[in-house]
Amino acid sequence: MKIRTLIYSVIFVGVNWCSQASAVEPNTSHHLTLAEANKLIALPLHCVETPYPYKTGQVLSSAADLKEPSVLHPIFYGCFDWHSAAHGYWSMVSLLRQFPELAEAEQVKAVLKRNLTVEKVAQEVEFFGKDINASFERTYGWAWLLKLSAELRTWQDPLAVELAENLQPLADLIVTRYQAFLPRLLYPVRVGEHPNTAFGLSFAYDYAVINKHIQLQQLIAERAKHYFMQDKNCPISWEPSGYDFISPCLEEMGLMQRVLPAAQFLTWLNNFMPQLADKDYQLAVGEVSDRTDGKLVHLDGLNFSRAWNLYALAKQYPQYAHLRKLADKHVAYSYPNLIGDSYEGGHWLGSFAIHALNSAK
Fold first, then answer.
1. Cis peptide leading into 5, omega within 30 of 0?
2. Which spans in 134-196 are helix H?
3. Residues β-bridged to residue 80
4. Alpha-carbon distance 112 to 88, whole Å?
5. The whole model's pTM is what?
6. pLDDT tens per residue, the chain (361 residues)?
7. Are 246 and 302 in contact (CB under 8 A)?
8. 96, 108 in Cβ contact below 8 A?
9. Cβ contacts of 64 within 8 Å, gap of 6 or more
10. Which helix (H) or strand (E) holds 16?
11. Are 80 and 57 a contacting pair, CB within 8 Å?
12. Is the peptide bond before 240 cis (omega within 30 degrees of 0)?
């Protein structure tokens, strides 16, 4: 199905998030419905097996490394780049796990079975295993691969058990990459793009919890405290930078929410972003001037990133429940623009929207 044939505006139960969504401020949080899942599934289905355009991110050791992306990455060769393909697969698994009655369920299963095979995973492992590729997709793509693995582990379906086992060698290799890298990373990366340390650790921490990988869980908690425990007054007014697709301040908050006990986290948060406790706190959405520009459309991702962290905070701590409305505002601005005719955002933003709406539950 071509993306351009899909509708541009999306109706949620009780609220019309129209193309003027930047002016809409929903009065309640929303989560995925079957109707929305049936629309969103078109995005990863459209891209995970679309080979071009593709951005390799590859370091060449010789001319012998010049191969088709589908040869180097027989699973993650679509969706423009390796990491977007990884979260495209996560999107399909997440939607199918939540909505087994998806209209495209059989097509999704066919794509998963065709690609998440023992043989293809072995080829991906071989690529990562070369010394020259030690930093490939560090840590953004690593995080999404572990999120895909974790999603398969939480899907109660015989197919998921098989696929999770197939993927496990690559997940194991990524875990060893984290274990080797984090002790050497003396200072966190605080940018709003792929190398952001807090983002890269958050999904990996979730994987460690789901898989009961105590060693990885403890390492991430220790390094998170080392990097961020003393941070105060995060300058969120400096956000967004022009190409941000994740919020440096709120991703850090989301990581610390994971690794700190409640009392310690709330004390830390009061020092880190005391303004969040204000029931009238406002944060302007990131505005996108051109959704055909692959960098400028990043700001839609920023809105979803902010939303999933605000939803998570409001859900766990009732004193921050007022932040749901702020999260809704961010989602409402960017969500209606997912289903359009530009591949620049369509190849990856659906994953961000799904994660944000999952966090709103």
1. no
2. 140-154, 158-181
3. none
4. 11
5. 0.91
6. 333 333 233 323 333 333 333 333 333 346 789 999 999 999 999 999 999 999 999 999 999 999 999 999 999 999 999 999 999 999 999 999 999 999 999 999 999 999 999 999 999 999 999 999 999 999 999 999 999 999 999 999 999 999 999 999 999 999 999 999 999 999 999 999 999 999 999 999 999 999 999 999 999 999 999 999 999 999 999 999 999 999 999 999 999 999 999 999 999 999 999 999 999 999 999 999 999 999 999 999 999 999 999 999 999 999 999 999 999 999 999 999 887 657 777 789 999 999 999 999 8
7. yes
8. yes
9. none
10. strand 15-17
11. no
12. yes
Residue type, 259: V
DSSP string, 17-76: E-TTGGG---SS-----HHHHHHHTHHHHHHTT---S----PPPSSGGG---HHHH-SSS
In DSSP terms, which residues pair with 16 in a beta bridge?
11
Alpha-carbon 264 to chain mean position: 26
Q: What is the residue type of 174?
A: I
Neighbours of 115 (CB within 10 A): 20
109 near 159, Cβ under 8 Å? yes
Calculate ∠ Cα 105-44-170, nearest 5°: 95
Helix (H, G, I), strand (E, B) or coil at 252: helix
Contact 221, 191 (CB under 8 A): no
